[in-house]
UniProtKB/TrEMBL annotation:
<dbReference type="GO" id="GO:0045454">
    <property type="term" value="P:cell redox homeostasis"/>
</dbReference>
<dbReference type="GO" id="GO:0015035">
    <property type="term" value="F:protein-disulfide reductase activity"/>
</dbReference>
<keyword id="KW-1015">Disulfide bond</keyword>
<keyword id="KW-0249">Electron transport</keyword>
<dbReference type="Pfam" id="PF00085">
    <property type="entry name" value="Thioredoxin"/>
</dbReference>
<dbReference type="InterPro" id="IPR005746">
    <property type="entry name" value="Thioredoxin"/>
</dbReference>
<feature type="active site" description="Nucleophile">
    <location>
        <position position="33"/>
    </location>
</feature>
<dbReference type="GO" id="GO:0005829">
    <property type="term" value="C:cytosol"/>
</dbReference>
<dbReference type="InterPro" id="IPR017937">
    <property type="entry name" value="Thioredoxin_CS"/>
</dbReference>
<keyword id="KW-0813">Transport</keyword>
<comment type="similarity">
    <text>Belongs to the thioredoxin family.</text>
</comment>
<protein>
    <recommendedName>
        <fullName>Thioredoxin</fullName>
    </recommendedName>
</protein>
<feature type="domain" description="Thioredoxin">
    <location>
        <begin position="1"/>
        <end position="105"/>
    </location>
</feature>
<keyword id="KW-0676">Redox-active center</keyword>
<feature type="site" description="Contributes to redox potential value">
    <location>
        <position position="35"/>
    </location>
</feature>
<feature type="disulfide bond" description="Redox-active">
    <location>
        <begin position="33"/>
        <end position="36"/>
    </location>
</feature>
<feature type="active site" description="Nucleophile">
    <location>
        <position position="36"/>
    </location>
</feature>
């Protein structure tokens, strides 16, 4: 899946996010969330621009509540950056693309 956003869930979370050998940006979102829809095109652009350097993933919090609870997601969209299986940065709300990109490179 070249330059595509990876859809993560409880089944593939460990493999795609925690065990990734490159940084992973995870967008915690839900279909009913207006600001999440504003962030979606930015997330898509980052997936293309950072291909090979970082992984860009989306997690639907409605479908995967256990992960959302584990990471203390209280508002969406929330973007978390994982490196070596650990959270290294968290941003809540719609963020400019350059801000998100700077967290990864």
């Amino acid at each position: 899946m070249a330059g595509k956003v990876v859809v993560v869930n409880e089944a593939n979370w460990e493999q795609e996010v925690l065990n990734s050998d490159i940084p992973v940006l995870v967008d915690f979102w839900a279909p009913w969330c207006g600001p999440c829809r504003l962030l979606a095109p930015i997330i898509d652009e980052l997936a293309v621009e950072l291909e090979g350097k970082a992984k860009v993933a989306k997690l639907n919090t409605d479908e995967n509540p256990n992960i959302a609870i584990k990471y203390g997601i209280r508002a969406i969209p929330t973007v978390m950056v994982f490196k070596n299986g650990k959270v290294v940065d968290t941003r809540v709300g719609v963020q400019p693309k350059e801000v998100l990109k700077s967290l990864l490179v």
